[in-house]
Amino acid sequence: MKAPESTPEQIIYLVDDDEALRDSLVWLLESQGFKVAAFPSAEDFLRRWRPEFNGCLLLDVRMPGMSGLELHERLRAQYCTLPVIFITGHGDVPMAVAALKKGAVDFIEKPFNDNDLLHLVSQCLAKERESRDRRRQDAEVSRRLDQLTQREREVLDLIIVGKLNKQIADVLGISIKTVEVHRARVMEKMGAQSLAELVQSVMAIEGVASRS
């Protein structure tokens, strides 16, 4: 099974205190073209973690010192966006299931099939790429929104709730022609090719804001 094409900065961060398993997983993943960074403890990874890390996190549930679950909680508190796959022993499955409810992507139980692990990792990397692209697009929409004048933003807000040009003119006390000029400027500044695209991009941003 070949690794999907990935952006250069995507790395699989492997955290496991079992040196033999760690070495085996590094060999397996690198043999399929993935980039891997391995850590012997949760503390070691946490010291080196940076918000700009991209890729996914392959994390053992049970380790001396800080457990994988504790590391996951710490990373969530720091708004880490890396998708997490937990590596579990049989007795750790209930804990892994609890972690899924807190945002982990999946878990895999030892001893696991290599292809199952590679499939999960591929899914995680694809998920992380999509999430990063979405955040980049949202940031661009926010930047463009900030460039609108107050009047343009008022016109945009009324467009989003479905008001027609005549209704917008009545609400704002301006002429329909002026509304048309503002509307054209909004479309241009937002880089929208259609009304549907304009509304969807802004609604996506407002949806993110309401959830945060």
Total helical elements:
9
Give the neighbour order of strands across the main sheet.
2-1-3-4-5
Tell me the major beta sheet.
5 strands, parallel
How much of the sequence lies in strands comes to 5-15%
Report the structural category: alpha/beta
Number of DSSP-assigned strands: 5
* Helical residue percent band: 55-70%
How many structural domains are formed by the residues?
2
On the 0 to 100 scale, the average pLDDT is 87
Describe the 3D structure.
This protein has 212 residues and is of the alpha/beta class. It has 2 domains: 10-136, Response regulator (Rossmann fold); 147-211, Winged helix-like DNA-binding domain superfamily/Winged helix DNA-binding domain (Arc Repressor Mutant, subunit A, Orthogonal Bundle), CATH 1.10.10. The protein is 58% helix and 12% strand. It has 9 helices and 5 strands. It has a 5-stranded parallel beta sheet with strand order 2-1-3-4-5, with helices on both faces. The chain starts with 9 loop residues before the first strand and ends with a helix. The relative contact order is 0.10. One of its GO terms (molecular function) is DNA binding.
